Amino acid sequence: MFLRNTKYSKRSLKNINKVKSTLFKAVRSNSDAPSIQEVDVSFSSGRNLILSTGQYARMADGCAVASLGDTSVMVTVVSKPKPTVTGFLPLVVDYRQKSAAAGRIPTNFFRRELGPSEREILTSRLIDRSLRPLFPENFNNETQVICNMLAVDGVNSPDVLAINAASAALSLSDIPWNGPIGAVRVGFIENEVIINPTRREQQLSSLNLIVSAMKRNLVVMLEANANTILLQDLQKAIKIGVKETQHIISKIEELQKAFGKPKREFSGTDELSEEVMEALRSLTQMRVTEIFKNYSYDKLGRDNALSEIRNDVFEKIKSSFVDIDFNLMNEGYNKIVKEIFRNLIFEQGKRCDGREYHELRNISCKVNMYKPLHGSAVFQRGQTQVFCTVTLDSHDSALKLDPLSVLTSGVKEKNFFLHYEFPPFATKETGKIGPIGRREMGHGALAEKSLAPVVPSDFPFTIRLTSEVLESNGSSSMASVCGGSLALMDAGVPLSSPAAGVAMGLVTKYDSTKSNIEDYRILTDLLGIEDYMGDMDFKIAGNKKGVTALQADIKIPGLPLKIVMEALQSAADAKSQILGIMHQCIEKPRETKKDNWPVCKKLEVEAHKRARLLGIGGVNVKKLFAETGVSVSQIDDTTFQVFAPSQSAMDEADEIIQKLLSTERTPDLEFGGIYKATIVELRDIGVMVTLYTGMPPALLHNSQLDQRKIAHPSALGLEVGQELQVKYFGRDPVSGLMRLSRKVLQANLR
Known about the structure:
Radius of gyration: 35 Å
Pfam family, one: RNase_PH_C
Largest sheet: 8 strands, antiparallel
Domain S1 motif: 672-743
GO molecular function: 3'-5'-RNA exonuclease activity; polyribonucleotide nucleotidyltransferase activity; RNA binding
Distance between the termini: 85 Å
Family: Belongs to the polyribonucleotide nucleotidyltransferase family.
Strand order of the largest sheet: 8-7-9-10-21-20-18-19
Strand content: 25-35%
Shape: elongated
CATH topology of the largest domain: Ribosomal Protein S5, domain 2
EC number: 2.7.7.8
């Protein structure tokens, strides 16, 4: 306003414009203004993945956004400058699904995001397993990876995007990490491999495979569930998936080269001196070697023997080196024991329990353990023992998923679910019994995915399968698959085929450059100690036809495809052997009914009789459940499902239901027939009439009372108790109400 109302010379205006231009340039050159850098990754499917950085969270060590379609995920990484622990990497991955990203409001009481859901926890584990193997061995700084959904379109899944965004964020940061990696989802539709399928395509796909890989086609992580895919098709999908990840890796490297921070120097934790390590080695090597060569030891005996050697060696070392750190000494001892254990596998050609590389542990199984249970089984493999039970219930007991999980997965509810429990006594430990942890949730989800394809989708009951680990010495999740399959057959669930699972291990030797594997041994049916001291825990489950689920936890920085394919083939052979042993216990699903099995049937009820069955506010159904334990749920307008915990309860409920439906039997009314109706109530919209004694009143609407248009029945002088002639036109097919008319009879008279 001041400039507009004041007269300036041309020279003054020129100076003002010059100042304006200088100010605008200063703002544009301000370092606080965001500068967005992005790369575009093209896949063979024609879909493009966009990776960008520089716009958000610039105070974090690294931040990247991955977008596919209209789904975008932002990942930030932050690591403390100094190590906080020794012996392991304190990496925490938190993946959160935000309702706002889908245009929703949370449905809980507080209307905000609360604790992580099962899907969020499983996705966090998925990302963790993809990132953890590539951190340097001595990097023990506390590191946190946070994955936030910015937007989700319900078409493209955000979990794979989170892995790629985390890879880009770590590569761009100054955190030491030997990446990048790339991840893709692989589908299989009509013998064709699909890369990053949409949610709709995923529902049609017989395979849901996530592949994480690094340069040189080295596999870092695998996770899959399948509708019984053939082994050769699965191998083909893995190869194509690894090939597609290389495009992502090259683009992340471009982004890193142009905009990445230089990696920070880190010292790692303190290490023992050469003198102390030599003393530890000389006191340990021979005694530990003898223990691992003694095949008579079981898990507890071997652990106790190693613990005795540890205590004895530590006392002798402390007498010579007074000021030594106990934690460092313990870490050095573990390192020597691990080295001895691995070398013996190559030298002896046998494992610590005397088995050959491809040999299974002794397996025994039993079904129908306790009469009150619908189905039960105990599966024992070596010193791993699981007790599985099956409970059958009505469809009302199906597991309902939260709205955001429904949007991202396309599954609204599950009528089959598995709950896995790992109490501390299974490994002779003490601990708290309470809500399940992330590990238990992950193992249970894997076992559930392994069995879900063989469970019929149209089964009339909801199935809850529980697996409690009573003893554990490795591969308890795959034992849950075997025990769960036996328990389901014992419960009479008509499985398409039995399923079994096995865990594969790996021990490798690297060359002098520590970049290439020069020798390796694949171990079938993994022991707990082989998992702890080995390089891989590869779980594969399926039936005789093919694979239903797999999960690969790889502890070294990348695994060649050749080893992956060999492990899959060895697992297929072992799976066939296990299925043969299970077949001797129970051949097929039980056909003769147990006395305690629940009963389910469909009940057809005419529309006009629904009120009799349900009662006011459903009081009849509630009373039926309270008296007999039988529940009634409506499927559609005329069909109800009746669930009873036993046949005797169903028989009792049948009597009650028949009594409800047959009370005051309705006389047969002829369509188009003329009947005498008695007025029982006057209403604003018409009159309520009855055609016979005991009949529920039916409405004769104002529009059907007279040829003339009336606003109230009193205009015709009608009164309660008066009799009318009406014509019957059947019942409304939706509401079941009678259709009556007096007007049509007046037309006939005229």
